[in-house]
């Protein structure tokens, strides 16, 4: 049996143009996610959102995740405010119900299976909302600057400070500069512990202390040069796969 773990990456369905094929609905995600997984020693596969959501979302997601060794809940549009019982701020982006429904189910079921998970930006927010957490809808109103998202389609860079004693601190050390592109952040996160903060008090990472590997970051490590989060995910996925393959005693 191969020891190369298979990592699912959540994706969009968006219209894309390739040569003569114009505006064709396509399952896609920035290739930087795929590249980082492959460089870390994993096999990347895309998980498209279910466009026709039904009551059996969790059943189908469970069938999917039982075939994977790890998952990345990727970045993207704002989570719908009604999912955490909030009124929408004027800056909130149009929601993507297909991704919300599919990724909330992935967050739930991956927790049940203790499947290794890395949440990135929106993925961190999905994971928090899935356990009853809440979000800050527009960070610049509190912090008074746009360092977390300086301009459209432009990544910012700022330091974050992992919390001593956390898994994240063990991976990244006391301080690391990160590529950032977000205007929302997690406020409450039942079951998770805070794992990193920005100097302005924005929560930048959380992790589940009882899980094999269940970590989420607010920044975009797929756009940086630091491979350690992806290497840690792939290592945890390899351990998960090995444990699943062991015969029952």
Automatic annotation (TrEMBL):
InterPro entries: Class_I_gatase-like, Peptidase_C26, PuuD-like
GO cellular component: cytosol
Record Pfam families: Peptidase_C26
Domain of life (superkingdom): Bacteria
Gene3D superfamilies assigned: 3.40.50.880
GO biological process: polyamine catabolic process
GO molecular function per UniProt: gamma-glutamyl-gamma-aminobutyrate hydrolase activity
Transmembrane segments: none
Name of the molecule in the record: Peptidase C26
Species in which this protein is naturally found: Intrasporangium calvum (strain ATCC 23552 / DSM 43043 / JCM 3097 / NBRC 12989 / NCIMB 10167 / NRRL B-3866 / 7 KIP)
């Amino acid at each position: 049996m191969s020891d190369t773990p298979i990592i699912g990456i959540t994706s969009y369905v968006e219209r894309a143009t390739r040569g003569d094929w114009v505006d064709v609905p396509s399952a896609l995600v920035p290739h930087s996610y795929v590249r980082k997984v492959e460089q870390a020693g994993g096999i990347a596969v895309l998980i498209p959102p279910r466009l026709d959501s039904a009551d059996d979302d969790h059943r189908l997601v469970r069938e999917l995740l039982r075939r994977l060794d790890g998952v990345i809940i990727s970045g993207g549009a704002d989570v719908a405010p009604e999912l955490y019982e909030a009124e929408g701020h004027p800056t909130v982006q149009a929601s993507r119900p297909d991704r919300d429904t599919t990724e909330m189910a992935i967050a739930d079921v991956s927790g049940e299976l203790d499947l290794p998970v890395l949440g990135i930006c929106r993925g961190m927010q999905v994971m928090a909302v899935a356990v009853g957490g809440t979000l800050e809808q527009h960070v610049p109103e509190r912090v008074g600057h746009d360092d977390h998202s300086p301009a459209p389609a432009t990544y910012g860079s700022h330091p974050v400070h992992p919390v001593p004693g956390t898994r994240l601190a063990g991976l990244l050390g006391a301080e690391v500069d990160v590529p950032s592109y977000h205007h929302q952040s997690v406020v409450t996160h039942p079951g998770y512990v805070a794992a990193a903060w920005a100097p302005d008090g924005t929560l930048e990472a959380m992790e589940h202390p009882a899980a094999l590997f269940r970590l989420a970051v607010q920044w975009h490590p797929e756009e940086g040069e630091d491979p350690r989060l992806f290497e840690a995910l792939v290592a945890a996925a390899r351990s998960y796969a090995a444990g699943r393959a062991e015969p029952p005693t």
